[in-house]
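User: Please fill in residues for this 384-position structure.
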C-alpha cells in the first residue's frame, strides 16, 4: 500500500483483507489447478458489495470512485494469484462499467444488477484471432434484422469466457474503421453463440481464458450499448480504466514479490549468515524497492488525474508501460534469491514469477502504450 486511505477506504480495506485471508487465499492452489475462479466467489463478493464498487447505486452498486477499485485490486492480489484479481476485475470493471455508462434501463436491469449481486458473470470481448491492438480493424459483424442483430465472427483470449453468462461484445455494424464499431451485450444462452477452447496459458491459470464463436448469433437490438457505430469511443474510454487496473496489478504484484524476497532473505542461511547479511542482496533488493516506489508513484499520479476527470490518457499509458515492464525485472530479481524454489509451482514465488509474464500484453501491449504516449506528447511529426 503506497497511499494513505481515508477512514472509509481503511474500513473497506480491512474487511476485504479479512475476506481474502479467510475465503480466497486458502483455495488459490485449488483454483490454479482447476483453471478458473469458482462461481461461489463471485456470489460471495457480490453479496458483500465488492462487485459494484464504481457502479450506480440505483442498480445495487456503491457509486464510489476509482480509489476504492485501487483497494480492491491491491487486496485481491495479496491472495497470491493474479488470476483471481484478473477474473474479478474483468467482471466488476471491464464488462460492466460500460453497461453502467451506456446501457438502457432495461439492459442494466437485465445484466448489470445481477452482475453486481454476483448472480451473473460478465466478460468483455474485443480481441479477435487476427485483431488485437488495432481495435478499429475488428471483423466480427452484426447485421440488423428487424428487432435483432445477427452476429457472425470469433473472439479470443477472453477472460471469463468459459464461465460468463453475458459478454459485452465489440462488433462491426457499419463500414471500415473506428466509426463502424458498436458494443452489444450478448447473453451466452443466445442461439448461435458457442464457446471454443479454454486456453492454456503460461501464467495466471486461475483466470479462465477462452475462445468465443458467433454463428448467426441472434441478439435483441435493444441490447446495444449507446448509439450504433459509437462503440469505439466507449471501448477507448473503458481502456483507460483497464490500463489503470493492470498498472495496479503490476504494482501490487511487485510489492508482494519484494515482501516475499525480504522475508526469505532474513530466514535463509548461507555460509553462516542470512542471505540478507550479504551486501549484494541488500543492494539488489534496495534497487527493487526503488523501482516499485517509482512505479507506484507514477500510477498514483495517473489515478489522481483520472479520478479528478482530467485528461490522463498519456499518464495512464506511462503508468501501465512502466509498471508492466518493470514487473518482469522485479520478478527476476526477487525470484533469484530463492534459488531453485523460484521455479517450483508449489511455492508462491514461483507462481508470482510466471504470472508476471502477461503484464506487458494485457489491456494493451507495451508497444501500444508507447504509441499513445508518442501521439499525445508531440513526438509524431506532422504530415506535410
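Assistant: Residues filled in for all 384 positions:
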Amino acid at each position: 500500500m503506497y497511499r494513505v486511505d481515508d477512514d472509509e477506504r481503511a474500513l473497506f480495506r480491512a474487511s476485504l483483507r479479512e475476506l481474502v485471508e479467510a475465503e480466497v487465499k486458502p483455495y488459490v492452489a485449488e483454483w490454479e489447478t482447476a483453471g478458473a475462479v469458482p462461481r461461489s466467489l463471485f456470489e460471495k463478493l457480490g453479496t458483500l458489495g465488492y462487485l459494484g464498487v464504481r457502479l450506480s447505486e440505483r442498480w445495487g452498486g456503491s457509486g464510489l470512485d476509482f480509489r476504492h477499485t485501487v483497494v480492491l485490486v491491491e487486496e485481491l492480489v495479496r491472495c497470491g494469484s493474479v488470476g483471481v484479481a484478473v477474473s474479478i476485475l474483468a467482471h466488476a470493471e471491464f464488462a460492466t462499467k460500460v453497461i453502467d455508462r451506456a446501457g438502457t434501463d432495461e439492459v442494466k436491469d437485465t445484466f448489470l444488477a445481477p452482475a453486481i449481486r454476483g448472480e451473473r458473470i460478465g466478460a468483455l470481448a474485443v480481441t479477435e484471432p487476427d485483431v488485437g491492438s488495432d481495435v478499429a480493424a475488428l471483423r466480427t459483424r452484426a447485421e440488423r434484422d428487424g428487432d435483432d442483430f445477427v452476429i457472425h465472427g470469433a473472439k479470443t483470449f477472453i477472460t471469463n469466457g468459459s464461465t460468463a453468462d453475458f459478454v459485452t461484445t465489440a462488433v462491426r455494424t457499419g463500414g471500415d474503421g473506428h466509426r463502424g464499431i458498436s458494443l452489444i451485450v450478448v447473453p451466452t444462452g443466445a442461439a448461435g453463440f458457442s464457446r471454443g477452447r479454454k486456453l492454456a496459458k503460461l501464467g495466471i491459470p486461475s483466470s479462465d481464458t477462452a475462445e468465443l464463436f458467433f454463428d448467426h448469433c441472434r441478439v435483441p437490438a435493444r441490447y446495444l450499448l449507446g448509439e450504433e457505430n459509437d462503440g469505439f469511443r466507449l471501448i477507448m474510454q473503458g481502456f483507460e480504466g483497464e490500463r489503470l487496473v493492470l498498472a495496479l496489478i503490476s504494482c501490487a504484484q511487485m510489492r508482494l514479490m519484494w515482501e516475499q524476497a525480504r522475508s526469505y532473505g532474513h530466514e535463509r542461511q548461507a555460509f553462516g549468515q542470512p542471505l540478507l547479511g550479504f551486501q549484494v542482496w541488500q543492494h539488489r533488493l534496495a534497487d527493487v524497492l526503488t523501482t516499485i516506489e517509482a512505479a507506484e508513484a507514477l500510477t498514483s499520479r495517473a489515478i489522481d488525474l483520472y479520478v479528478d476527470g482530467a485528461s490522463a490518457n498519456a499518464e495512464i499509458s506511462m503508468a501501465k508501460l512502466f509498471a508492466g515492464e518493470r514487473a518482469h525485472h522485479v520478478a527476476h530479481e526477487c525470484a533469484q534469491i530463492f534459488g531453485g524454489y523460484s521455479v517450483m509451482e508449489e511455492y508462491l514465488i514461483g507462481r508470482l514469477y510466471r504470472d508476471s509474464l502477461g503484464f506487458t500484453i494485457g489491456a494493451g501491449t507495451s508497444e501500444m502504450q508507447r504509441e499513445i504516449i508518442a501521439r499525445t506528447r508531440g513526438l509524431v511529426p506532422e504530415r506535410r
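For context: Strands lie at 122-125, 141-145, 148-159, 166-172, 181-187, 193-198, 209-220, 224-225, 269-270, 273-274.
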